[in-house]
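Need a sequence for this fold. Nothing fancy.
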């Protein structure tokens, strides 16, 4: 075979294989047998191997995935990935319709779609080829998971036809169908791995795996439902979906145009029950204004489009028997009672365990072992017990005795005023707390230490190699390699992961420390406000409170953390190993507002966050409370008590246009 002949054959094979993939995965009607399909695939693989120059990332052979483990690059979304306004009530849905009706003199129609409960994905195509797939992330930037998404067979690598825009984005949901989810969890159970709580988690976890071969095996699926951008060659959302379907995407057949809100309600009522027969999870219906022109006229708030709303279904419930109660100890020492249940099917999956919240909840519901209990899957990961079937409540059952000592270390539990949960106070000696803190430190959103999963941390701890996060950086290859299930390669990976983690920005390091109430967002705010660990360590209670969204609880918790000697030692050690304790300089447009502190109040023409951003981009600071050190109160309409306070403290009050004048020199920003 000459290269020329090979090229012709490869092109032909790719085309038929893509076509068969579409029949199989998008249309669910295979045109040939699996065996015949495999033969075609093998032939293509054979030729590609012989003629490496014909390799192509869009070839169907690339769907099997590679063994390469890559960290995911963070990519900024061209259009931010916003969420949708939510409602559970018909009344609010009708209010949404009334707002739309008010905006137009002309007719409008809706498109109703199922709300798929998976992980959202942004897909970029250039010249008809999938070039990039990015997770939602924080909405502004996400993980580039292209290698994994290439393995999802219902996502075309190469589009059909030729009437697609040269470059465009399409959004959809990556799902794990119930059958794939069940078999994956069965396999995990056999291997003694933690089970995924629901298909949504499993889908997003799978998307972020470092082994795309494993991703390919798991059977992810996809529906697309939205094309962002203002230069699309369509007049309506419905048309854009039809086009997407023609180009080879999987668009749900349960998508319907509705000419009025009554038809929307009918669609919702139908799917409220019909959805239970679907082979994947849905958690509501998304209602979108169809016309693109009308969508543009309605626009967006800072968080959601004004032209769409999600009607959420109420969580499904199941009834089953409570077999026993376990008590889990979290990294902060908080105790969570967990119910072991007679397995029951709920929203497409089998539930065996559910959260019982806390002692009060148990007492309130008077839950007893042997009771029939209601289990519900809410937005949370773990299903919860929401009630007891009183008609079955036998008096012979004994009330539940809540534990008084830590099930892991035996220390008497304490209950702090105002807290719903019991705590094990033995922070430095209780194993799940020690391990939990290190797991949190290494986790993806914190230091993101590759190779250092939950089980590995546990293994390191059990073998006496680590007792705190700083110990991780003292590990040697030989110490790790000789542990059970480890080897040279995994040891090298972990050390490399640790090395890479030294580049993590200050805000992540701060989050990784696991200071109580300091989540990801708070850590970012603190890092931005203080700029360095030493500044933060020296901050007073009042200074902490001045930071936007930092309240007394967080401020107290931060002070307590930095005050403790063992934490100071830990921080010194982490500084020595080279972690980053200084914030990166924020992007700035000017220093016009340098040294000035603003408080924003009242109704402005745009969301407050936008003004806050403007202040910060010009070097100023925004705080939530007025004090004598506030430079300006930016007051919109209906400004309340802050106005009086400003007058009392002689703080200058300005309106929106006066504010804009302050940065007028840079008004293009
Ligand atoms: S439209 C600008 N349509 O729901 C609006 N979203 O809370 C873009 N979702 O993050 C979203 N099914 O992951 C849209 N048919 C559907 C959807 C859908 C599920 C998810 C999506 C989004 C979230 C919004």
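Here you go.
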């Amino acid at each position: 075979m000459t290269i020329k002949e090979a090229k012709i054959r490869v092109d032909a094979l790719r085309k038929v294989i893509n076509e068969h993939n579409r029949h199989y995965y998008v249309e669910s009607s295979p045109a040939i047998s699996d065996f015949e399909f495999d033969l075609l695939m093998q032939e293509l693989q054979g030729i590609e191997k012989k003629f490496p120059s014909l390799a192509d990332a869009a070839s169907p052979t690339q769907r099997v995935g590679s063994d390469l483990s890559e960290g995911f690059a963070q990519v900024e979304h061209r259009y931010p990935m916003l969420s949708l306004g939510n409602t559970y009530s018909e009344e609010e849905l009708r209010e949404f319709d009334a707002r739309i009706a008010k905006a137009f003199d002309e007719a409008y129609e809706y498109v109703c779609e199922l709300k798929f409960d998976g992980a959202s994905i942004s897909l970029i195509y250039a010249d008809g080829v999938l070039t990039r797939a990015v997770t939602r992330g924080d909405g502004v930037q996400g993980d580039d998971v292209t290698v994994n998404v290439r393995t999802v067979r219902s996502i075309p690598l190469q589009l059909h036809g030729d009437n697609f825009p040269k470059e465009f984005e399409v959004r959809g949901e990556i799902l794990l169908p119930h059958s794939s989810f069940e078999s994956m969890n069965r396999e995990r159970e056999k291997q003694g791995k933690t089970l995924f709580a629901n298909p949504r988690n499993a889908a997003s976890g799978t998307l972020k795996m470092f082994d795309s071969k494993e991703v390919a095996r798991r059977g992810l699926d996809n529906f697309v439902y939205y094309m962002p951008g203002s230069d699309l060659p369509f007049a309506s959302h419905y048309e854009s979906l039809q086009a997407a379907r023609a180009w080879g995407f999987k668009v749900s057949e349960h998508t319907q145009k509705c000419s009025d809100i009554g038809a929307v309600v009918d669609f919702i009522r139908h799917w409220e029950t019909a959805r239970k027969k679907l082979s994947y999870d849905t958690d509501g219906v998304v209602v979108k204004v169809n016309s693109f022109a009308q969508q543009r006229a309605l626009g967006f708030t800072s968080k959601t489009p004004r032209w769409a709303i999600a009607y959420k279904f109420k969580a499904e419930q199941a009834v089953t028997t409570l077999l026993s109660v376990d008590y889990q100890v979290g990294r902060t020492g908080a105790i969570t009672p967990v119910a072991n249940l007679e397995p029951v099917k709920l929203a497409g999956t089998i539930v065996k365990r559910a959260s019982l919240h806390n002692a009060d909840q148990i007492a309130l519901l008077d839950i007893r072992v042997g009771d029939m209990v209601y289990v519900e899957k809410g937005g949370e990961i773990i299903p919860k017990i929401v009630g007891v079937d009183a008609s079955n409540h036998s008096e012979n059952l004994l009330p539940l005795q809540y534990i008084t000592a830590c099930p892991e270390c035996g220390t008497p539990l304490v209950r702090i005023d105002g807290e719903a949960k019991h705590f094990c106070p033995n922070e430095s000696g209780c194993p799940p707390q020690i391990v939990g803190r290190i797991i949190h430190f290494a986790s993806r959103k914190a230091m993101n230490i590759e190779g250092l999963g939950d089980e590995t941390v546990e293994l390191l701890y059990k073998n006496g190699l680590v007792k705190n996060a700083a110990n991780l950086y003292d590990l040697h290859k030989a110490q790790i390699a000789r542990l059970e299930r480890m080897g040279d390669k995994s040891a090298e990976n972990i050390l490399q992961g640790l090395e890479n983690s030294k580049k993590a920005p200050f805000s992540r390091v701060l989050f990784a420390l696991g200071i109580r109430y300091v989540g990801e967002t708070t850590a970012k705010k603190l890092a931005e406000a203080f700029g360095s660990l030493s500044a933060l360590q020296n901050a007073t209670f009042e200074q902490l409170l001045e930071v936007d969204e930092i309240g007394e609880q967080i401020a107290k918790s931060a002070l307590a953390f930095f005050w403790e000697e063992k934490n100071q030692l830990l921080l010194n050690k982490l500084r020595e190993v080279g972690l980053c304790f200084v914030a990166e300089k924020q992007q700035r447009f000017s220093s016009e507002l340098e040294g000035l502190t603003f408080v924003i109040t009242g109704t402005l023409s745009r969301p407050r966050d936008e003004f806050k951003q403007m202040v910060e981009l010009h070097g100023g600071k925004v705080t939530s409370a007025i004090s004598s050190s506030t430079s300006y109160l930016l007051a919109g309409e209906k400004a309340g008590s802050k106005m009086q306070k400003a007058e009392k403290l002689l703080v200058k009050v300005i309106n929106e246009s006066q504010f804009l004048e302050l940065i007028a020199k840079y008004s293009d920003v």
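For context: The pocket of 2-(butylsulfanyl)adenosine is lined by residues 82-84, 113, 115-116, 120, 136, 173, 225-226, 286, 305, 308, 310 (CB under 6 Å).
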